[in-house]
């Protein structure tokens, strides 16, 4: 059996297209994988710690020392977030586009879990190594936008979200990444776009 963790980046509840399509995906996943465990992590639920002190702890770790006191508490709080993320071997991310990129709470999640010895190793000559590689982890990234869409001019925005987020996953060592996009534009046919993305989500979920 596998564990699927759905990490959502929208605070809009039932009004969010990203969450709606995620539920379509998860319904199909449940049917295809009845023995698997599914957990939802709403990044807006207050579970992400601040990282001002954690950033100092990170540099302490980089120097080869062990964080102590306030730094140690911040490091342990970040570790708990990482362990929740790392406990899943199937990851579904539902991400709305905000200002050409990910919502700030998604960036906060990335900055909290992306720590030396957890997500990456580093060598001064060879550079970074993704520590989540070779463990059978798979990710599906569902991205949505209401204005930007492929082929539109720059006045409709630029998609920094998908390249950035997918590159981060690859950097961690997760190479098996599937992308699902819902980008109907303001004047598009939303019903037809919903039908298309729902069909793709259901199909991908079966083999995820």
Automatic annotation (TrEMBL):
Coiled coil: none
SUPFAM superfamilies associated with the record: Flavoproteins
EC number: 1.6.5.-, 1.7.1.17
Enzyme class: oxidoreductase
Catalytic activity, as annotated: 2 a quinone + NADH + H(+) = 2 a 1,4-benzosemiquinone + NAD(+); N,N-dimethyl-1,4-phenylenediamine + anthranilate + 2 NAD(+) = 2-(4-dimethylaminophenyl)diazenylbenzoate + 2 NADH + 2 H(+)
Flavodoxin-like fold domain span: 2-201
GO molecular function: electron transfer activity; FMN binding; oxidoreductase activity, acting on NAD(P)H as acceptor; oxidoreductase activity, acting on NAD(P)H, quinone or similar compound as acceptor
Pfam families: Flavodoxin_2
Free-text remark on how the cofactor is bound: Binds 1 FMN per subunit.
Gene3D superfamilies xrefs: 3.40.50.360
Keyword S-adenosyl-L-methionine applies: no
InterPro entries attached to this UniProt entry: Flavodoxin_fold, Flavoprotein-like_sf, FMN-dep_NADH:Q_OxRdtase_AzoR1, NADH:quinone_OxRdtase_FMN_depd
Keywords per UniProt: Flavoprotein, FMN, NAD, Oxidoreductase
Binding site residues for FMN: 10
Domain of life: Bacteria
Cofactor(s) named in the record: FMN
PANTHER family: FMN-DEPENDENT NADH-AZOREDUCTASE 1, FMN-DEPENDENT NADH:QUINONE OXIDOREDUCTASE
Similarity field: Belongs to the azoreductase type 1 family.
Function (record text): Also exhibits azoreductase activity. Catalyzes the reductive cleavage of the azo bond in aromatic azo compounds to the corresponding amines.
Assembly: Homodimer.
Protein name (record): FMN dependent NADH:quinone oxidoreductase
């Amino acid at each position: 059996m596998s564990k699927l963790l759905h990490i959502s980046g929208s605070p809009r509840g039932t009004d969010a297209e990203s969450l709606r399509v995620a539920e379509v995906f998860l319904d199909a996943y449940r049917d295809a994988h009845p023995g698997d465990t599914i957990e939802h992590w709403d990044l807006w639920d207050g579970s992400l710690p601040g990282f001002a002190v954690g950033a100092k702890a990170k540099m302490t770790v980089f120097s080869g020392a062990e964080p102590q006191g306030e730094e140690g508490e911040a490091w342990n709080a970040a570790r708990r977030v990482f362990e929740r993320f790392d406990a899943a071997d199937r990851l579904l991310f539902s991400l709305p586009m905000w200002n050409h990129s990910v919502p700030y709470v998604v960036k906060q999640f990335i900055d909290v879990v992306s720590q030396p010895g957890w997500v990456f190793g580093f060598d001064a000559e060879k550079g970074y190594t993704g520590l989540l590689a070779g463990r059978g982890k798979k990710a599906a990234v569902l991205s949505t936008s209401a204005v930007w869409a492929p082929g539109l001019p720059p006045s409709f925005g630029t998609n920094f979200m998908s390249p950035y987020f997918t590159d981060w996953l690859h950097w961690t060592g997760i190479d098996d990444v599937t992308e699902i996009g819902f980008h109907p534009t303001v004047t598009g046919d939303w019903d037809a776009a919903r039908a298309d993305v729902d069909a793709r989500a259901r199909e991908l979920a079966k083999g995820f």
